[in-house]
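Hey, quick one: can you model this chain's 3D structure?
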Amino acid sequence: MAKIFKNRLDLATWGIPAIVLSVVGGLIGSAYDGVFFTMGGTFILWSAGLWGWGFLPVREKSYAVIERFDCYHSIKYPGWRWVNPFCDRIKERGSLKGRRVPLYKDDKDKKAQKIDFQDSSACVLVWGWYLVGNPIEVAAKNWDAVTSDILLWTYYLDNPELRVATCFDGEFRFRIQGLTTDDAQKEPGKAICKVAADAAAPLLADIGAYPLPKEALIIEDIALPPETERLRELILEAKKKLEADTLEFQSTGRAIAALIEGSKNAAGDPTVSNSEAQGLVQQTQILKTLERTGSNITMIAPGMTGVMQQLQPASIKAGE
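Sure thing. Here's the predicted structure for all 320 residues.
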């Protein structure tokens, strides 16, 4: 019955003014012997003007909620649509594409809120991606099924975006707090994002929203505090030093083994002992260190006769 009434109202909005204007045009045209022509022309002009006035293009993957006399009337989906310019108004234009909402971002001071991880508290920016309307029904253009979701999204809450952020946060925060900041940015963090988005799906459906099918929650940034950053730098420096010391130790061992192997006689017996090979390698390392630093040898190692002998010019060695 309501649908018939709406159609009758549209018909009356078009028909009554058309008849009145046609009669008026006919009376004016009678003075010029063009009654029927003027009535017909007035009728056509009014009809074209009314259609053009109420013309409403709706883009693909979007919708428009129409209210008549400040009450819900209909939803216009993609295509060339018409609304009554006298009685209707657009309540909301919305998108059926994926939308996003920021989590843990304070709009007052433009700073992200902190989450307490296992190793530190850090400012986090997470994006929650969602759609209005069941994505399967939207893809199939089953608008009758999508309409109920759009009505929930439009009229159920004053701020549905806040509800989306709250639903995502309620399922995400307590899970991500069980990780370290490193794990939160790697695969464990992505797995928790997937679990939290799936858990939030039933809550979002109550307002006509659905998590994005693939990645509904994405951790964009974890801003670590300065003390944590400095601790990480120290740990990294220690690891590099350990790797350098290990490499030097390994190279020293290989050099000693090479000296012993190279000193073997025809019978296969080494002519240089392990202690002698260690001394030669150690002398070589000392020489390289002194050469690299440019140090005064007599001040640093006056008792290193072997080193001094090697560093002396050839003329001095020959007794010149």
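One thing worth noting: DSSP finds twelve helices and twelve strands in the chain.
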